[in-house]
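A.,

Following up on our hallway conversation. Structure tokens first:
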């Protein structure tokens, strides 16, 4: 009698949990749950200052495949990311700010290159660079598959505008080795804010005893 009651209670509990969605009711549902789990973003947290960019992700840099490790092995850079090439704000305000002669000169006094990153294919970015006169001034970085963008938690859902998943608007100063030294998002990603941020950083760097070891001799993480 006791065994029958235990069996009956466990059966009722399993049926109730299944109907409430606490457990898969079939092997197919179980497989679907595991499949959805595998499709989660690579990174649920946004990258922070003093963290390293993922080193082995491959991007298209002016049409040439390069890993993040290769991009920042011997160079420092400002990376500004846009939701999309040819979109109004990116074309009329964000990119032109970095093409401004005064802003570009001030930035290039501090870093080795300025790069524009977007979740667009390399051909679209090349056409955008030509139209805006940015060739030979800005390095265009295609994260066409959105791999880096997802890995650092900067993806943006633009499906409402028929654009799919794109990148948030941000800018970052990346030291040799790929360490993020400064990060600005939204309005802080425009050229004027980047110039001001670099000026503040350089005041700190100039007065820090560890400036040479952390900036000029920054190593690649293991």
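Then the amino acids I'd put at each of the 222 positions:
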């Amino acid at each position: 009698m006791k065994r029958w009651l235990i069996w009956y209670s466990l059966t009722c509990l399993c049926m109730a949990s299944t109907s409430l969605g606490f457990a898969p009711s079939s092997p197919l549902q179980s497989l679907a749950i595991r499949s959805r789990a595998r499709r989660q973003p690579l990174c649920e947290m946004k990258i922070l200052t003093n963290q390293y960019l993922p080193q082995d992700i491959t991007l298209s840099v002016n049409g040439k495949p390069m890993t993040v490790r290769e991009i920042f092995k011997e160079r420092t850079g400002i990376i500004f990311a846009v939701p999309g090439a040819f979109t109004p704000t990116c074309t009329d305000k964000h990119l032109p700010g970095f093409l401004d002669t005064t802003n570009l000169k001030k930035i290039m006094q501090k870093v080795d290159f300025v790069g524009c990153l977007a979740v667009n294919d390399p051909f679209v970015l090349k056409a955008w660079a030509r139209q805006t006169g940015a060739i030979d001034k800005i390095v265009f970085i295609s994260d066409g598959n959105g791999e880096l963008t997802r890995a650092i938690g900067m993806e943006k859902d633009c499906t409402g505008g028929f654009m799919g998943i794109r990148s948030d608007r941000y800018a970052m100063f990346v030291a040799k080795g790929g360490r993020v030294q400064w990060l600005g998002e939204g309005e802080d990603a425009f050229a004027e804010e980047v110039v001001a941020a670099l000026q503040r950083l350089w005041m700190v760097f100039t007065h820090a005893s560890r400036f040479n070891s952390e900036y000029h001799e920054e190593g690649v993480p293991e």
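The first helix runs from residue 2 to 19. Curious whether your intuition agrees with the design.

B.
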